[in-house]
Amino acid sequence: MESALEVKDLIKHYPVRGSVFGSIAGQRRVVHAVDGISFAVTPGEILGLVGESGCGKTTTGKLVTRLEAPTSGSIVFQGRDIAGLSQSQLRAVRQDLQIIFQDPYDSLDPRYTVEMAVMEPLRAQGVDAAERRRRVEETLEMVELRPARMFMSRYPHELSGGQRQRVAIARAMIVRPRFVIADEPVSMLDVSIRAGLLTLMRRWNQELGVSFLFITHDLGVARYMSHRIVVMYLGKIVETGLTEAVIGQPKHPYTQMLIAAVPDPDPRNRRVEQELRGEVASAIDPPSGCRFHPRCPIAQAICTDQEPALRVLRDGRLAACHFAE
Amino acid sequence: MKKPLLEVRDLVMHFQVGSGSVHAVDGVSFDLQRGETMGVVGESGSGKTSLGYAMLRLLPANGRILQGSIIFDGIDLVPLAEEDLRGLRWKRFAMIFQNAMSALNPVFRVGDQIVDAIRHHTGVTRSAARERAGALFELVGLSRARLRGYPHEFSGGMKQRAMIALALSCGPDLVVADEPTTALDVVAQGQVLRQIKQLQQELQLAMIFVSHDISVVAEICRNVAVMYAGEFVEYGPTEQLLTDPRHPYTMALLRSFPSVRGPLKTLLSVPGSPPDLVRPPSGCRFHPRCPFAQQICRDVSPGPTPTFDGGWARCHFTNEIRAQGRDAIEVLEKVQ
Known about the structure:
The complex is a heterodimer. Chain A has helices at residues 20-24, 57-64, 87-94, 114-123, 129-142, 148-152, 161-173, 191-208, 219-225, 243-248, 253-260, 301-305; strands spanning 5-15, 30-41, 46-50, 72-77, 80-81, 97-100, 179-183, 211-216, 228-233, 236-242, 311-312, 318-319. By secondary structure, chain A is an alpha/beta fold. Chain A is globular and about 70 Å long. The mean pLDDT of chain A is 91. Chain B is α/β, with parallel strands linked by helices. Chain B has helices at residues 48-55, 82-88, 100-103, 110-122, 126-139, 156-168, 186-203, 214-220, 238-243, 248-255, 295-299, 318-324, 327-335; strands at 6-17, 20-32, 37-41, 63-72, 75-76, 93-96, 174-178, 206-211, 223-228, 231-237, 305-306, 312-313.
């Protein structure tokens, strides 16, 4: 089956600004934000992309939507490599590739009513006015902003955070995309209203077969949403596989540490005390060999010298660790 | 039972805003023993941060305590003059703020800032203050050499440890921590939580731990208060309250938490949004969002019904809901 999205050897390096001496000496120092990652999203799948701040997950989202241009690598969307397309060439792709951002306060124009905001993507498509209005109403109903007519005339400041994020989702939905990239879509919202939005996106996926790249730092949210999970650390993929396998029995020492650190309100699910060692290293001078080796409880000499390849383990998942089985 | 370190009685704190007064804290009462950590958990706009600040009489210009008392070690802080408070702050009670990044001055060495704070409040010599700062750094798991570092050389987790060291610098009996781990990644959060647990044991420190995250509170608090719309709606020992919640809001909050452990559960959300605290709802403030609400909930504000071991829930129907057992969750599920 053809993938909905296939990313290969994707690299994004940012030059370090203000390093005058470096440029005089002819050495260009770079931040290795994304450093050669490959993954695919199958049609109708939700792929969770998880990791801590600085791991490259948000940059990956920006590259895939081509809000940023990759340094190298390919991004095949609907059979076409979009990595090198110009902004005008991308316009045709954008309709099928929508993005939902973290901040519902930032992503809506305060001067636009809900109707104008949700309708805007349709205008570019040349849909006539009556049809546009009908589609706005229908989409607002779908994201449970009911009655739709009442919400259409409202401005963002008249909405709660959860309602704004529903508007942002409606905006992405109205063009009926086949692929959505959601970057921390519920992180800014209170816990009690998150579930409603997550359920909405799951239904969107199940009923309309829309594929998702779901980016989050919250492993609980990733588990709830995703069919499969990709775990990133310092610009690299360290582990990927079916959600329940990766979350339930992580094989990479980093994934193990990450999951062991997650607190839980249920005393029966209390985390087992495990050593949480060190801090994330610099993405300017990433550690040699395995990037996790300075923090890894099972590191050996080989881990300093040789970068582990992402390889298939017995149960079919992939992990980039010399010792994972 | 020993005399509590802190006794808060019927505390009312409002903010003046353009459209009226915000009922940020409305009739909150609790005791805190020496060495006890109490969690205050609530969502944005519940009044939890205002309560934390009010404990130390750190009020914004438009905030006023209208009623109630805050008895700290026998002294009522509410009528106390500002200059008398100054003698108590940092020395007897201190605060850890959410945003450690901005609390440290970027142009001075972190160690110098702590040394200055110690000298300002205790009047000890520079070398004594430096020795103390070094000991504090070790206490929170930072090396002494870090005292010479600048804030930008510290990661988020290290800054938060430095802030904890600063809060502890004058040996307070009580620390109020407002979302101290919220800005941190999960591993750094785990490290800071472990540090706080160690300090609890070593220093017999009393703590009020304010957070939106019920899972973080679960890790380090002996007792938990659940705050909604300016009021404590449920209070009790952490383990029982989290395994057997008795207020519909607490139940819903727990069912909305996506866990990485145990079987995968359907998440539930609380219908509606938190109320406007300028005009809070009549009766029980949760009634417009509560699946169990009856007429009495609209009319009468519920008093505390005892639950277990000194715990209580402010709900007219807490016993009935409990008698229904599993049905309570089913009612919540039907609402979705």
